[in-house]
Amino acid sequence: MEYRKVKDQESYDDLSQKDVESLSGRSLSSANATATGLSSAGGAKGKSSWKLKSVVTLALTLLTSSQAILIVWSKRAGKYEYSVTTANFSVEALKCLLSLAALFRTWNHHGVTDDNRLTTSFDEVSVYPIPAILYMLKNLLQYYIFAYVDAPAYQILKNLNIISTGVLYRIILKKKLSEIQWAAFILLCAGCTTAQLNPSSDHVLQTPIQGWMMAIVMALLSGFAGVYTEAIIKKRPSRNINVQNFWLYIFGVIFNLVAICVQDYDAVMNKGFFHGYSFITVLMILNHALSGIAVSMVMKYADNIVKPTRA
């Protein structure tokens, strides 16, 4: 009897040991499978993010490089038949509508969350009027500068944005740029300028002082507004970009409406809001709207340093 009891105990111990080993093996297999799954998910997410950045950057390059041409083409007999303030207003209104449409799509697919809710708290909304008014002034100057320069000259002068953005990036965001980065800025600016020079644009060196001053002011406005907006957007990285865009664009709509009342009220009342518009004008407005959204995506997922080098 004693012998049988000892054998039974040994058999029980062997079974227990096998069960433990089996459970351990299963746990290790499960852990390895989980780790592999997480690694694959992380790799897929990184690849998706890289694709998004590439698509947005390519789109921004194509859109911004055609802006000057569309503005010049929208002229008739060397002047704008339409009110530039209404064109600016239309751009901001279209961007606002596109952001709302994207938000509705997000709400339908993922529901309303803290990150995609259109909150109206003062702390969140109060930061957007400053970049909105800066963008309005810069965009209006963009039309008037063509009284002094042509499209190639504008592209050359626009490279001032690269230096101004680098300086303001360091001052506002407190991000230290290395000597290599500064050298890259200078070389990039020189390279873009050299690439855009051609025999037909020799007169660029004789651009009136008004053109140069407007270009410098535009560069400062664009750089400051861009870096300031990036600081706002990246302050809450989890915040849905379309919510942030909506508040920026809604203030743009308000300020441009004020500009219409101040500058073109009589023309709009007598001739209509869309007087002088052509197919090219509509294309220009669509181009500016899509460019603005692409810029915000670059700020969200890359940084503002990327933006000037795309133009």
From TrEMBL:
Keyword list, A-Z: Golgi apparatus, Membrane, Transmembrane, Transmembrane helix
Chief location bin: Golgi
GO cellular component: Golgi membrane
Intracellular or extracellular location(s): Golgi apparatus membrane; Membrane
Pfam families, per database record: Nuc_sug_transp
Signal sequence extent: none
Domain of life, source organism: Eukaryota
Transmembrane stretches, start-end: 55-73, 180-197, 209-233, 245-265, 277-299
PANTHER family: NUCLEOTIDE-SUGAR TRANSMEMBRANE TRANSPORTER
The family this protein is said to belong to: Belongs to the nucleotide-sugar transporter family. CMP-Sialate:CMP antiporter (TC 2.A.7.12) subfamily.
Function: Sugar transporter involved in the transport of CMP-sialic acid from the cytoplasm into the Golgi. May transport important nucleotide sugars such as CMP-Kdo (2-keto-3-deoxy-D-manno-octulosonic acid) in physiological conditions.
Listed name of the protein: CMP-sialic acid transporter 2 isoform X1
Organism in which the protein naturally occurs: Panicum miliaceum (Proso millet)
